[in-house]
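Database export, one record per block. Field names are fixed; values are copied verbatim from the stored entry.
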Amino acid sequence: HHRHITATACDGRRLHKIMSIKSTKIKKKPRKFAIKRSNDEWAAYLKPEQYDVLRKGSLAKPWRGEYLNFFPFDGVFACRGCGAILYASDRKFDDASGYCAFDQCFQGRLYCSRTDVSTGVKVWIANCSGCGSNIARVTRGEQRTNTNERHVVSSHSIKYLPGNQLVGTIF
C-alpha cells in the first residue's frame, strides 16, 4: 500500500508525493550525495553526540533518546544530517531495545554500507541516501514485525517532523 504525504513548499504551492512503504530495499551506495560537507563542517553543524552517531557510526547509549517513548500519530522522522524523510511515524514501535524501532523505511532512503555478524545475527548497517549518515541497524527474519524487518535507530540520527510542518524537506 502507499502513504500520501502532503507538504507546503516555501512558495506556498502544495506538493503531493506518493511514497512506497514496501519492504526496505537496501540499495547500493549512491554515486553522489545531495548534501556534501567536510568533516569540519559536519562537526560544526551537529552536536558532538550526533556527530559520533551520524558520521562516525558510533552506538549511542541505550534508553536515553528523546524519541524513545515518543509515538506520534502523524508526521515523519527525517535524517538529522540532511532532512531526508526516512520513516513514517506510524511505522515506529517499541521493541524494548532501548532505541527507536521502525518496521520499514521509505523505499530507497537507506543504503547498506556494510553488514555485521559479530552477534551471530546478520545486521545491515544502513546509511542515509541523502548524505551518507549512519542511521540504523537493520535485521530481517526475526519474525517480530509484519514486515519481518526491524530498524534500530538512535534518536541522535533522526528528527521528528509533524505532518503540518513538512516544509523544505527532501522527498
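Remark 1: The mean pLDDT is 82.
Remark 2: The CA atoms of residues 100 and 161 lie 15 Å apart.
End of record.
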